[in-house]
Amino acid sequence: MSNYFEDLAHSVIAGQQDRVKQLTQQALDAGTDPVEIINQGLISGMNVVGARFKVGQMFVPEVLMSARAMNGGMELVKPLLVGQELPSAGKVVLGTVKGDLHDIGKNLVGMMLESAGFTVVNLGVDAGPQKFLQAIKEHKPGVIGMSALLTTTMLSMKDTIEVLKEEGLRNKVKVIVGGAPISQDFADEIGADGFAPDAASATDLCKKLLA
Amino acid sequence: MTKSQYVRANYQVNATPQFHVLSEHQCENIYYGALEALERTGAEVHSRTALEIFRQGGCRVDGNRVRFPTRLVERAVSSTPSRVVISDRHGHRSMFLEGSNVYYGPGPTNTYTLDPFTGERRRPKKSDTVRAGIVCDALPNIAYAMDNGTPMDVTPTLADVHAFQALLENTVKPIIHWGFGIEQYQDIVEMAAAVAGGLAELQRNPFIVLYSESSPPLRHSEEAIDKAIFAAKTDIPVIYTPCTFAGGVAPATMAGSLVISVADFLVGLVAGQLVREGASFIMGGLISTMDMSSSILSYGATELSLLSAGLTDVARHMKIPMFSTGGCSDSKVIDVQTGIEAAFSILIAGLSGASIVHDCNYMEYGATGSLELMVMDDEIIGMVKRILEGIEVDDEHLAVDVIDAVGPGGHFLGEMHTMAHFRDFWAPTLINRLRYDGWKAEGSKTMGQRIREKTQNIINTHKPEKLPDEVLRQIQTVVDRAEAREAAKKISK
Prior knowledge:
The structure holds two protein chains of two kinds. Chain A is an alpha/beta fold. Chain A contains nine helices and five strands; from the N terminus they run H-H-H-H-E-H-E-H-E-H-E-H-E-H. In chain A, strands 2-1-3-4-5 form a five-stranded parallel β-sheet, with helices on both faces. Chain A starts with a helix and ends with a helix. In chain A, about 50% of the residues are buried. In chain B, the strands form five sheets. A seven-stranded parallel β-sheet of chain B has the order 6-17-16-14-12-10-9. The termini of chain B are far apart. In chain B, about 50% of the residues are buried. Chains A and B meet through helix 5 of A and loops of B.
């Protein structure tokens, strides 16, 4: 069985979604524990990807392909986890703030988080305080992440934090911010819990905040 | 700079060396690729005004998606002027954006500024925009002014208006300026009109160019496209510039990125030409690669130069002036990397014959603006301009008579011919060519130290021409009114 896991991990690293699906199905057919498939095959492959990316041996598009391959396997395993808790590093709600349509950076963060085992709820672009508020009530995330590219729209991050305070939800969720004009100083100023300069460190930040 | 003499009838003279990275056929294929993308995929447009203009103009509008029939785009391209002339603050026509004339200058809206006195990287203030105006005004090879960073110590939604005031009052050079939205653009045009002596004067000899960025691939925010429409309606030249990075918001291939860039420019152009046939548009602009490790949009990538030169070729094919990029760097401080990246991109942009080359102040993948980099770039631009002047070949310059007069084994130092021509050599102001002892006697300074000293010296001593008091009052009135408007909005919220 350990060969299955090794093959599976390798296929995740190589970004071969079809192969990952095939191996996952074979493992399931052979009666392997779904949680084992996730932890020892899919996630263990993705951990290697994360480590290689950090040292510059793998690149963003490759990480994306690996994440897709992993998710292909996940889709097959998930329905069999009835009654069992899906292993998740935590839940993160992400959105580009009100008035802003720039979302490539935020989507990159989402992809990195998913590949690190987080469950991501992506609110898309132009997400105002109410949209975040609603998402917090509905999904009960551990972290919300706000993204902005413009110096005008980044001010809306503060509005969202204020609304969370008014609703008494501020202490129930960690708030992280990012985007080209955002700095640690700005994050401190508006009372956010964290700032990350890029997608990879956003993942580390979420891990740290939820630890 | 002096006019390019690339083509002269009957006698082909390469008076201005040039290079092309794309052939006519390749340009045509990229243009066709853009036309196909616009007709087949179309673009997402987030402005009701623009959607209505597109609908009435004959585009296929489905919700926010607009598809553009080729004939419509071609009509827009053919009604766009092939040349735009920009004046200085006095209304003297100074930038002839035509053919392969090249004009260099800085870029806008950096998040940070490198303080030329403390070396600190910090948020820009309005006083930094004043400095930017002064430095642009002083440097001979910088053709126009741009803000070098969004001032953060003013009302945030009026940072554009305040930055414009700071530039307007501190340089006579043309100003290329951005704005958050239409209201701010109205303020900016009104301030410029006060200087020009009325809107009609400003339209006749515009000394400002408006600037609007779309969000590729094929997505146009309300502000972006409405600003292009506003500029066309107001009859002020505009740069419509998608910020395209290969592998991120465009295909990872160079040609595919060019297709996205051209297509996204054309969306703005069609809107503008539908509003006013013959409105002056300049094609942007920023095109480079996404670094696949750090995910930055690289300002030092060699592909930035290659892609910008390619886009310039396509612009020339379309007979539309080009807003290109150069003199920028991914480095965080003025160092060897900055020198390599800046020199490389300035040279390639010059050889490509782009009309305007902006971002001669961009450090740290565009996040930081640096006046020191602009001062260094001024020197590099001087060198590149000398190269672009080429080699003159006629009897006077062949100098066969002088060679004969001096004869074998002689020297040319004492010749009148030498006196007449040696000043054509490019003379450095920052590059050091002293003999060792001379350099040591002057303090053994590095290039970085000399750049910093020159920058500080300009800021401390250069006095730009002042505007008349009455005009200054009018400008202040516009700023005050804008402040009152924003304050009222805040209250009504």
